[in-house]
Amino acid sequence: MTSATSLFSTVEADLYQLTENLKQLVGARHPILYAAAEHLFGAGGKRLRPAIVLLVSRATMPTHEPTPKHRRLAELTEMIHTASLVHDDIIDESELRRGVPTVHASFGNRVAVLAGDFLFAQASWYLANLDNLEVVKLLSEVIKDYAEGEIQQGLNRFDTNLSIDAYLEKTYYKTASLIANSSKSAGLLSGVSDELALDLYSYGRHLGLAFQIVDDILDFTGSSDALGKPAGSDLKSGNLTAPVLYALEEKPYLEVLIDREFAQEGDLDQAIALVRDSQGIQRSRELAAHHAQLAVEHITRLAPSDSRQTLINLTDYVLSRLY
């Protein structure tokens, strides 16, 4: 399997600088927030989202070099993503993220809420300073979409009538919107045509959906060590993902377990076993592969370059995480 490190070799130096800049963007005036930021930005992460922004920037600029505005956009993309993770972990009561304690586990809920809010606010301020109204609108929509996705997820907990379409809509709001709109924004900063900007948006949308579907599969097939959190975490919290929704079509007893919210001892283990014993995981793999293929189709209009090839290879990388 290709590693994210080798895949992103063309933007490796950019990503190193980005990590250093992120800590500075938070600023040292707030020692607790700075400590929380250092904890977050030093936690490893694949830096997938800023890497995509930098790759799109290189693929669309005549010089194949990102401008300072492209680099700032990449930083803001990671800030928004990190802010969403902080809030996610509070809502899900997760103690671990990428194998290390979450911000609320380390600093308490109050600081974690404020840290997430601060990162969203700081990202918004730097976003406004890009002086590009279209990009401001796109990234502001991402923050709105994230909140919409969280609300939908909260309202649909343990809802066995949830459709795959509703799941994909929530997945777009929570995960794919950021990748889609930041990819489009990178193109707009390069001055691409409206048609190509839309293609870049669609690439990010489908790649983001494929990425999250794979994550949702790994919640059932990955080890707790590899996931950095307990396996089956989403199901336990009532977040029904593609493998579960497909499994419900052939395993009626799964609905009984979910409806009683795993109240009896052994319910969760039994539910996980039912999902693994169904076609849910295979059908979810096919769904992820479908969206990965659609992502590739949307960047065929880009001029050939190393960065374009990496964007194509990225779709294979996303799927290869399953094997």
CATH class: Mainly Alpha
Low-confidence stretches: none
Shape estimate = globular
Indicate the CATH architecture.
Orthogonal Bundle
Across the major sheet, the strand order is 1-2
Radius of gyration: 19 Å
Question: What portion of residues is helical?
Answer: over 70%
Polypeptide structure, described:
The protein has one domain (4-320): Orthogonal Bundle (Farnesyl Diphosphate Synthase), CATH 1.10.600.10. The chain has helices at residues 4-7, 12-26, 31-41, 48-60, 68-92, 103-107, 109-128, 133-155, 164-190, 194-221, 224-227, 233-236, 242-248, 252-259, 267-276, 280-297, 306-320, and strands at residues 96-97, 100-101. Helix 4 (48-60) packs across helix 9 and helix 10 (194-221) runs antiparallel to helix 16. The protein has a two-stranded antiparallel ribbon with strand order 1-2. It is 73% helix and 1% strand. The protein contains 17 helices and two strands. It has 323 residues and is mainly α.
In terms of topology, how is this protein built?
Layout: H1 4-7, H2 12-26, H3 31-41, H4 48-60, H5 68-92, E1 96-97, E2 100-101, H6 103-107, H7 109-128, H8 133-155, H9 164-190, H10 194-221, H11 224-227, H12 233-236, H13 242-248, H14 252-259, H15 267-276, H16 280-297, H17 306-320
Helix pairs in contact: 2-3, 2-5, 3-7, 4-5, 4-9, 4-17, 5-7, 5-8, 5-9, 7-8, 8-9, 9-10, 10-16, 13-16, 16-17
